């Protein structure tokens, strides 16, 4: 009986712990601490809203309206933010904004604040880049495609926009026109530093946006060196399988194994993807006494494939 009782208690504890993992914490009494903006007046059009993390929150609702939240508010922004910072460009006007944390079952107290954006020279302002495609991490993009698209907020007073690109070949300016996005085409591998600038009708320019680093890398990780079996090895049919292995290739995070009876265009056949350095290939329906060819190609984290290994063959006898 004591054993049964102990098992029952243990099961109840496990079930309770499991339930705690699925029951979200009530955050209705939590208060958000705002770090910025702390002033209710500014002549900077681009504002960063920043607050302290609320434990057990899945996101934060940030809303900005012109004037005040009355019966018919005119929204400038209504967004769910997953981090604790959000940057947006506002035109000169009076605003009220509010913020709360939320999860699937509750939400925190709501913080209300007012801010007035005063009109001033474009030369003091900064363009806010909202996103890139491919997506950036900490304003850095690594890609094996020669194009990256930038998107930015409209800047009050800006008539057109320019991209300033710094690379090993120097600095160049690209006119993006009136659009709020531009696709940059890169001609060679390397590192490019890109900033967006607004320009008014008098030719006055804003300050550059925070720079984005774009790394174009189309170089593969090199050639895989095969390990075993040796070329032309004969595999006893009784074993029914063979372990194909190769050496680790620096820079490779994935390998593509090609196996086929036809050696012509082997790399165009369907590949077996693996992150391991070996693969157990089974005879299956392959005929006895016929050569089977194999080769391996490495791929780096940027999805660049290297040169294929030398081809080898084996025979089931």
Structural descriptors:
five-stranded mixed sheet, elongated, mainly beta, 1 helix, 317 residues
Structure, described:
There is one protein chain. With 317 residues, the chain is mostly beta strands. The protein is 7% helix and 44% strand. It contains one helix and 24 strands. The strands form six sheets. Strands 2-8-7-4-5 form a five-stranded mixed sheet, with no helix packed on it. A five-stranded mixed sheet has the order 10-16-15-12-13, with no helix packed on it. Strands 18-24-23-20-21 form a five-stranded mixed sheet, with no helix packed on it. The N and C termini lie far apart (62 Å). The mean pLDDT is 91.
How is the topology of this model organized?
Blueprint: H1 2-22, E1 34-36, E2 41-42, E3 46-51, E4 59-66, E5 74-81, E6 85-89, E7 93-102, E8 111-117, E9 129-133, E10 140-143, E11 147-152, E12 160-167, E13 170-177, E14 181-185, E15 190-199, E16 212-216, E17 226-228, E18 233-235, E19 241-246, E20 254-260, E21 272-274, E22 278-282, E23 291-299, E24 312-316
Parallel strand pairs: 2-8, 10-16, 18-24
Antiparallel strand pairs: 1-3, 3-6, 4-5, 4-7, 7-8, 9-11, 11-14, 12-13, 12-15, 15-16, 17-19, 19-22, 20-21, 20-23, 23-24
